[in-house]
């Protein structure tokens, strides 16, 4: 169990950020964790990403993360290789710029902390010549982004913006305590301690006069990652809602397997129901599905009348989400492997 004791100042400084760099790092972790078959909704992305890592020389430096994770996925990973965003919405160039200029003293300090027996061979270039090593790493991430992540980013950004809106409203209206209780993941909030179940690991730290940073990720695979090496920030990344967007319209069906949900409610309304994997706006649905907002509004009105969807106001936005009856309908009439 990892226990983080948060003082009132740190809790009061809770902030939310997104990170394109951390999305890639967690994507690499998914590839490493599932070398044979990557689960839905990452399957299509993983096929392309694995091919890029295998065939594109400029991306080869990213194999470092497989070495960091190790065969048992139990190796320590210095936070210099999973840097936390220092702004709410940094662009990729800014994140890669900070990665390139990782302070050599911080590298030596973290490697010594996590590898007291000495740096393993794959990390020695980062200790001996960090400038050159992190330059190569940043270039590899830039290539990997263009080849694997950029096509998905518009849909990801829409989902992440809505996730941040929801969490920020909760934080402003009810405080950090309510926000931490509502996060998706295995963590347990027992004020003032945030507990993270960790197999065969016991550690405890006290965060005093720092900042708690929450980073929602599409590629978190329903897990939570904690970064505690930063001198001023305690960072927690967690699974954001809307990862189903990474799978496009879902797993293809065979001709022998009809879309029972579409037969019952119509193709357009079936698509809307499947897209409501997390609260979203009319505009968000229209952008994701390539439909006119008026068309989306018309179908949502029918789903509201049927009682399978409800709406609520969050600030200036109106959010739509599934009723329990809508969840049950999807569960009963959606083929295995598709969005639930």
From TrEMBL:
Q: Which domain of life, per UniProt?
A: Bacteria
SMART domains named among the record's database cross-references: HTH_ARSR
Where do the coiled-coil regions begin and end?
A: none
> One Pfam family of this protein, by short name?
HTH_5
Q: Which residues cross the membrane?
A: none
Show the PANTHER family listed in the entry.
ARSENICAL RESISTANCE OPERON REPRESSOR ARSR-RELATED (PTHR43132), HTH-TYPE TRANSCRIPTIONAL REPRESSOR CZRA (PTHR43132:SF6)
Q: Does the keyword Transcription apply?
A: yes
Record-linked PROSITE patterns? HTH_ARSR_2
Q: Which residues form the HTH arsR-type domain?
A: 249-340
Protein name (Swiss-Prot/TrEMBL): Winged helix-turn-helix domain-containing protein
Q: Which UniProt keywords apply?
A: DNA-binding, Transcription, Transcription regulation
Which source organism? Answer: Kineosporia mesophila
């Amino acid at each position: 169990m990892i226990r983080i004791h948060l003082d009132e100042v740190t809790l009061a400084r809770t902030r939310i950020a997104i990170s394109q760099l951390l999305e890639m790092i967690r994507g690499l972790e998914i590839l490493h964790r599932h070398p044979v078959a990557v689960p839905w909704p990452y399957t299509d992305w993983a096929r392309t990403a694995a091919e890029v890592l295998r065939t594109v020389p400029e991306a080869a430096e990213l194999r470092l993360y497989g070495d960091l994770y190790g065969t048992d996925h139990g190796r320590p990973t210095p936070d210099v290789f999973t840097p936390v965003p220092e702004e709410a919405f940094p662009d990729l160039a800014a994140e890669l710029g900070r990665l390139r200029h990782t302070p050599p003293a911080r590298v030596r300090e973290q490697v010594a902390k996590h590898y007291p027996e000495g740096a393993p061979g794959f990390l020695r270039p980062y200790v001996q010549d960090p400038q050159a090593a992190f330059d190569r790493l940043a270039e590899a991430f830039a290539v990997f982004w263009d080849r694997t992540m950029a096509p998905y980013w518009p849909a990801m950004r829409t989902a992440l913006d809505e996730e941040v809106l929801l969490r920020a409203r909760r934080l402003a209206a009810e405080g950090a305590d309510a926000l931490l209780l509502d996060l998706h993941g295995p963590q347990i909030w027992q004020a003032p301690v945030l507990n993270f179940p960790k197999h065969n690991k016991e550690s405890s730290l006290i965060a005093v006069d720092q900042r708690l940073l929450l980073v929602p990720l599409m590629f978190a695979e329903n897990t939570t990652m904690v970064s505690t090496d930063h001198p001023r920030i305690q960072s927690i990344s967690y699974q954001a809602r809307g990862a189903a967007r990474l799978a496009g319209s879902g797993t293809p069906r065979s001709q022998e397997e009809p879309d029972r949900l579409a037969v019952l409610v119509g193709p357009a309304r079936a698509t809307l129901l499947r897209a409501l994997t997390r609260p979203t706006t009319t505009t968000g649905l229209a952008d994701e599905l390539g439909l006119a907002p008026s068309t989306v509004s018309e179908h949502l009105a029918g789903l509201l009348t049927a009682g399978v969807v409800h709406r609520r106001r969050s600030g200036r936005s109106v959010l739509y989400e599934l009723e329990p009856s809508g969840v049950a309908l999807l569960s009963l009439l959606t083929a295995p492997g598709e969005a639930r």
